[in-house]
Amino acid sequence: MINKLVDKIKKTEAPIVVGLDPMMKFVPEHIKEAAFKEYGETLKGAGEAIFEYNKGIIDSIYDLVPAVKPQIAMYEQFGIEGLIAFKKTCEYAKSKDLVIIGDVKRGDIGSTSEAYAVGHLGKVKVGSKEYYGFDEDFATVNPYLGSDGINPFINVCKEEKKGIFVLVKTSNPSSGEFQDKVCDGRPMYEIVGEMVDKWGSDCMGDSYSYVGAVVGATYPEMGKVLRKLMPKTYILVPGYGAQGGKGKDLVHFFNEDGLGAIVNSSRGIIAAYQQEQYAKFGALNYADASRQAVLDMREDIKGALLGRKDN
Amino acid sequence: MINKLVDKIKKTEAPIVVGLDPMMKFVPEHIKEAAFKEYGETLKGAGEAIFEYNKGIIDSIYDLVPAVKPQIAMYEQFGIEGLIAFKKTCEYAKSKDLVIIGDVKRGDIGSTSEAYAVGHLGKVKVGSKEYYGFDEDFATVNPYLGSDGINPFINVCKEEKKGIFVLVKTSNPSSGEFQDKVCDGRPMYEIVGEMVDKWGSDCMGDSYSYVGAVVGATYPEMGKVLRKLMPKTYILVPGYGAQGGKGKDLVHFFNEDGLGAIVNSSRGIIAAYQQEQYAKFGALNYADASRQAVLDMREDIKGALLGRKDN
After folding, report:
1. Structural domain boundaries, residue B284
2. Contact residues on chain B for A167, CB-CB shorter than 8 A
3. Which residues 146-175 on chain B approach chain A with CB closer than 8 angstroms?
4. Using one digit for the tens of pLDDT, what is the confidence trace for A142-189?
């Protein structure tokens, strides 16, 4: 799957993943009204509304980007009905040949981590049969529990030829509270980064490993260090756009070949129509606004990478 | 809810939480057969089997213990149908007045962490209505992302009078890879523990705070240090039994008042009938074996705590 992701990034010339994090306040009124008319103001109605909203966005951007990243929390908050919408979103995006990065930030130990890996990436056994649970292509994973938490994911990834992105340095303001602590002369995020490189060395695709890393666009200097520390690791970069990251902050996350990083934007794309810049599209044409936001983001990143070569 | 938990621990004299982590290999054949007969070897069949299995255990132990801790990964691996079984398990345990500790180990940032908090502990808004998603009483939370990940949970806990347990030092062999790293002269788990104490100081129940900690029974010396560092923090202690922790390892996790810790046992109780010691009960009476295992565990802990006073 890392090979497919890299191929699609090359083809689309867009190292971009669209974060499908549908908050109800992003969903246009006409979609909410239709869903509530059919199902009432219920959890099922909410699930239906966010799925329809996602569908519009996917239809509008699937030819431009390699991947989408549904954030499961935004679905899980609606309980079972929300998770049904999550699954339908993954299935629909897959039907458009998009790579699915499940932003699930799971992480536990031993058989428990294995259960998460099986549920999100692999197949579960029921008697003599096997079934996929959510069947994403990649999942994000929390490293706090160490190798015991990661290895079960890697085993499933090898079997299914899928991948994970391990949280190394997250994009949020307080990420430094623990991640930046200096241990044995080095910050924790470097220690984690080094382990990511090691975990990945054992499961390589053609040029990058199955074990990626999450490093926030909001910390470009750390991105530079981590890029060198993990040369074969694909970096998933959140924090672009709404969180303050800009194209020029991203250049150090990429390798010289222009690969090695994929940048996420969520509300900057899916709620583009609510921003002044794209307000002219209006709520009815929210998906067209999202498409324009993707095109603009692609140019921003392309420009920044070209600028790097000029220097 | 922390007050209710403490009250129930006092009443039952059992600082014990039963981990409902139903692996298919634990579920007795007669339960699997009945479920597969009705629903086939399907995800729904699996969900039905684990719910029936849990129901038997809950019926058998609800008067002995204050709380159960369903491990969501074991349900999530079966996709939507598994999560329906998780929700039904929580509801059924709640109907028996058990406190529900959702072992979900979620953790993200800002609005995303808020969505997890809302989904597991709080109410989500749909138009003019509000609904509970999974409605557990406590949830376990991963601290790697710092305060940005914890505060949204605390806000929901204050509103709902519920609580969280933050991973501080986990029970697994590799937990030290990151958690034991010495930063500014102190191991990471102490730095996290100090933050737990701080987060909790702002949301106190009668004697303990809404913000608990997870510290593994397998590291008793660290438990001793953390107990002193976080005097008002309830400690959820995994690792007893199957993972190797024994009653005598637990004494330092408790305060002088005999409170302050609740010890989890999962397979040691729910799959007791598969152990030599309880094999005489047989698979048909698996729930009676679980009851006996709880009684034995209660004696083991009681004895260890009495032993402490004698010294």
Report:
1. 2-306
2. 144-145
3. 146-149, 167, 170-175
4. 999 999 999 999 999 999 999 999 999 999 999 999 999 999 899 999
Weakest-pLDDT range from A146-150, B224-228, B243-247, B261-265: B243-247
For residue A311, is pLDDT > 70? no
The predicted pLDDT at position B309 comes to: 61
Token pair 């040691």: residue: B268
Kindly state the tokens that stand for A244: 């303050």
Residue A311 lies in a domain: no
Q: Where is pLDDT greater, at A257 or A123? A: A123
What are the structure tokens assigned to A165, written together? 């992105």
Query: Helix, strand, coil shares of chain B as percentages rounded to 5?
Result: 55, 20, 25
Within A19-72, where are the H helices? 29-39, 43-61
Spatial separation of the C-alpha atoms in residues A291 and B42, rounded to whole Å? 39
Cα→Cα distances A294→A17, A66, A97, A239, B26, Å: 9, 12, 18, 15, 49
Residues in chain A with CB shorter than 8 Å from the CB of B116 are 73, 76-77
* DSSP string for A166-225: EEEE-SSGGGHHHHT-EETTEEHHHHHHHHHHHHHHTSB-SSSBSEEEEE-TT-HHHHHH
- Structural domain includes residue B311: no
Distances (CA, A) of A212 to A197, A200, A208, A248, B33: 8, 8, 8, 22, 41
The predicted model gives B168-185 an average pLDDT of 92
Coil, strand or helix: which one is A280? helix
A114: Cβ–Cβ under 8 A, 6 or more apart, which residues?
Answer: A152, A155, A156
Contact A94, A100 (CB under 8 A): yes
Instruction: Look up the CATH number of the domain holding residue A140.
Output: 3.20.20.70
Total structural domains within chain A = 1
Distance CA(B289)–CA(B45), nearest Å, equals: 24
Radius of gyration of the CA atoms of chain A, in A: 19
Contact A299, A248 (CB under 8 A): no
* Per-residue pLDDT at B307: 82
- Domain membership of residue A310 (yes or no) is no
Flag if B129 and A171 touch (Cβ within 8 Å).
no
